[in-house]
Design goal:
Layout: H1 3-32, H2 38-43, E1 50-55, H3 60-76, E2 80-84, H4 90-102, E3 107-111, H5 115-127, E4 132-135, E5 145-147, H6 151-165, E6 170-175, H7 181-196, E7 200-206, H8 213-227, E8 236-239, H9 242-254, E9 261-265, H10 269-276, E10 282-286
Parallel strand pairs: 1-2, 1-3, 3-4, 4-5, 6-7, 6-8, 8-9, 9-10
Helix pairs in contact: 1-3, 4-5, 6-7, 8-9
């Protein structure tokens, strides 16, 4: 299994465990008047604990590995994970957060989402002494640890690689979607890249997070290839998400246009196999 899953999810679960230990230690101290044994608390910090994983979107192999990693790490410590998917619906995400609080989960992991949808619920959870850890979210609430992958840096790495490979000039296609914290950070890097690389021209830009993202991306990329039918019309595709990269790659392969190279962000086992195929136009990706 790709190392990203183990490294990131281990950190997420460790931070949540520390939060649960802190709550447990405080309770033990208040009950007995004596300091709690933190080492003893740590040994079984998630034993019989219910952990809610509340996700803004759950699509593709990258998300599947993320969920698998969280479950694996929590279960190693004796806990159990319940996943609350929301299909990109922030109102539903907020409702799921309220449900997790009302169902008295012992800890909450939040994946993506924004402050407008989640702030009230997160504050409610903290008031009830439920630890909250967030990944790739816009939350800025005291008591909540927010982790991210270094999205701007990953975008810079893939963009710089693309520029070098195409000789610093040519037409490119950008695949990106707004409304997600990591995507907004990747867009900052892309804008800076555009400002510095005047000989690289964006001739098309699209992207949407759907239940069939890779397939929908493939269809849109096929239309772009028909609009730019000649070799040299497009030098490369920059895809800000691996589901976008997969769709674009398949369209390029089926059209026999493998001179167009694809550069992505995020990684899964499936992605790695595609990139390692010497005949595949997806040549590079970055993951935290």
């Amino acid at each position: 299994m790709f190392h990203w899953k183990k490294s990131l999810t281990a950190v997420l679960v460790l931070v949540l465990s520390i939060g649960l230990i802190a709550c447990g230690s405080k309770s033990a101290s208040q009950d007995s008047g004596k300091p709690a044994d933190s080492a003893q608390a740590g040994a079984g910090s998630l034993a019989n604990k219910k952990i809610a994983l509340i996700m803004q979107i759950n699509l593709g192999t990258f998300s599947a590995q993320y969920i698998e990693g969280v479950k694996e790490q929590v279960e190693k410590l004796g806990g159990k994970v319940t996943v609350f998917p929301t299909d990109g619906d922030l109102a539903k995400m907020s409702s799921n957060l309220d449900a997790a609080i009302n169902q008295k989960f012992d800890g909450i992991l939040i994946d993506h989402g924004n402050a407008e949808a989640l702030e009230a619920g997160v504050k409610k959870a903290l008031e009830k002494k439920i630890p909250v850890v967030a990944f790739d979210s816009e939350l800025k609430i005291p008591g909540v640890t927010v982790l991210e992958q270094g999205d701007q840096k990953m975008a810079e790495m893939t963009l710089d690689k693309m520029s070098k490979d195409i000789g610093g000039k040519g037409n490119i296609v950008k695949i990106w979607v707004a409304g997600f914290a990591p995507m907004e950070r990747r867009q900052i890097a892309y804008k800076a890249f555009q400002d510095k690389n005047k000989d690289i021209k964006e001739v098309a830009a699209f992207g949407a997070a759907t239940q069939n993202t890779a397939l929908d991306t493939q269809a849109q990329m096929e239309a772009i290839l028909k609009k730019y039918p000649n070799k040299g019309d497009i030098a490369a595709v920059w895809a800000s998400w691996d589901e976008f990269a997969k769709g674009a790659t398949r369209a390029i392969q089926q059209a026999g246009r493998t001179e167009i190279k694809v550069y992505g962000i995020d990684m899964s086992d499936e992605d790695l196999q595609m990139i390692q195929d010497q005949n595949n136009p997806w040549v590079a990706s970055a993951a935290g």
